[in-house]
Design goal:
- It is a single chain.
- The strands form 2 sheets. Strands 3, 4, 5, 6, 7 and 8 form a 6-stranded antiparallel sheet that branches. The protein has a two-stranded antiparallel sheet with strand order 1-2.
- By secondary structure, it is of the alpha+beta class.
- 58% of the residues lie in helices and 18% in strands.
- The N terminus and C terminus are likely disordered.
- The protein folds into 3 domains: 157 residues, no CATH class; 64 residues, no CATH class; 94 residues, no CATH class.
């Protein structure tokens, strides 16, 4: 808005940021920005909430209420990335409407400076910047906290600190540990695998357990644990058979397939024992015993190919063979 004040026949022109024209254009900008934001949020919420409907249970009214609450809580998380683009589209929409209605032509014919015409856009930008800061800095963390506390929706479940945080690698004084962390309280580890190294840094032991719990003094109790050295022995024995002179692709596939079958059988027997299809003793020991038998068979094949049979001696070298 331009204020014109007459002073003895001369006209003084002043910028009026909050004048009638500025308020009118600012209202148009904000109105169209809100409409664009609503359209974008409708699409974003549909994409975000539709896969989460299956997470809710209970009566129809309870499910509808939870979805409505989740919708409000997801808005602060989904809206901030769209605010700058919605602001751009809202301003362009308003300017296009002004051009089509000939209002922009009227403004140009009035002699208003183009710089003064940018004042409503500047104010709209400041309003949306403040809105973005408030939503992103305050509303968004508060909404996420509610979702986590109530384990509401996909993000509430994913960010719940009481749940497993996925696989993590942890350095130990004598090796490495891989596990999924349940932060608790109480703290618990799931699907634990401990790799122990000797003084030279070579792997010499692998221990696995379903869970691990701390019980004081920096010690952990492994539950449903297994010593899986048979897998290492099987890999080494098969490698000596098939990779003795070169690594062919067929030999490599054969060894990898054998390892996969051994791993699959171990998991299969464990699951059958958990669901009562076989006795717990067989579920726990059948796979390791079969692996040990396979290792012994592979070692016997290696010994036989070198003319040693079952004797635990070194292969005769060339000088020993010629001197005899």
């Amino acid at each position: 808005m331009i204020l014109i004040k007459s002073q003895g026949g001369a006209r003084a022109v002043y910028l009026a940021p909050w004048g009638l024209y500025s308020r009118y254009i600012l209202g148009a900008y904000l109105r169209h920005i809100m409409m664009v934001s609503a359209a974008l949020m409708t699409i974003a919420l549909t994409i975000d909430l539709w896969p989460q409907v299956g997470l809710f249970s209970g009566g129809p009214l309870h499910v509808v209420w939870d979805i409505a609450r989740l919708t409000l809580l997801r808005l602060p998380d989904l809206l901030p990335p769209f605010i700058p683009f919605a602001t751009f589209l809202g301003v362009v929409w308003s300017e296009s409407a002004l051009t089509e209605s000939r209002e922009r032509l009227l403004i140009w014919n009035s002699g208003r400076s183009p710089i003064f015409c940018l004042v409503p856009a500047l104010m709209a930008g400041l309003v949306m910047a403040v809105a973005l800061f408030v939503v992103d800095a305050w509303a968004r963390p508060a909404a996420i906290d509610v979702q986590i506390d109530e384990r509401l929706g996909r993000e509430g479940i994913r960010l719940d600190r009481a749940q497993s945080g996925g696989n993590h690698w942890i350095a130990l004084p004598d090796g490495l540990l891989r596990a999924e962390i349940e932060y608790g309280p109480p703290l618990k580890l799931h699907n634990v695998t401990v790799y122990k190294m000797d003084s030279n840094g070579h792997l010499f032991e692998v221990d696995t357990a379903a869970t691990a719990l701390p019980f004081g003094g920096g010690n952990w109790r492994l539950e449903q644990g297994r010593f899986t050295c048979a897998m290492a022995l099987l890999g080494a024995a098969l490698s000596m058979i098939y990779f003795a002179y070169q690594t062919g692709w067929l030999a490599l596939v054969t060894v990898l397939l054998a390892g996969y079958l051994a791993h699959f059988s171990s998991k299969a027997f464990s699951l059958m024992g958990e669901f009562g299809y076989i006795a717990p003793f067989l579920a726990g020991w059948l796979a390791p015993l079969l692996l040990i038998a396979a290792v012994l068979r592979a070692l016997f094949v290696i010994q036989k190919s070198r003319g040693l049979g079952a004797r635990l001696v070194d292969t005769p070298n060339y000088t020993d063979a010629t001197s005899g």
